[in-house]
Fold:
Amino acid sequence: MTSSDFTVTLLVDQVPEIVFAAVNDVAGWWTENVEGDSHHLNDVFEVRFDDVHYSRQQLVEFMPAQKVVWLVTDSRLSFISDKSEWTGTRIVFNITQKDGPTELRFTHEGLKPEIECYGACSNAWGGYIRNSLFNLITTGQGQPDRKVETKF
Structure:
């Protein structure tokens, strides 16, 4: 991680175990359009946001109540020139207990100001982390993107 990677830090009045469980509930805070599992080391899951965003993540670090790292193994972002700009980046959730509250530090390693997706992606991440994930942790109810049923 470098200082230019996109980072958001939250302080919440919850124990690290609750924060960890919320982070791993991808459908509860990011999007209901998720396939696969996100609860164990080496799990793989895919998310879709209509035809705008597809990404596949693998859990490459999984330390209960402390840390989760997703490696983006595939991505297609339709709104930028390099559609696979996220591929090879890492999404890191560090959880530490401070004197009372728990700190959640989210970092998307590789999401830097010099890449095309930075503006839109950092804005979206900020909303999901500061609002939806924060609410899932503190109230038990996030605001993920709703499941889109496809018709064939």
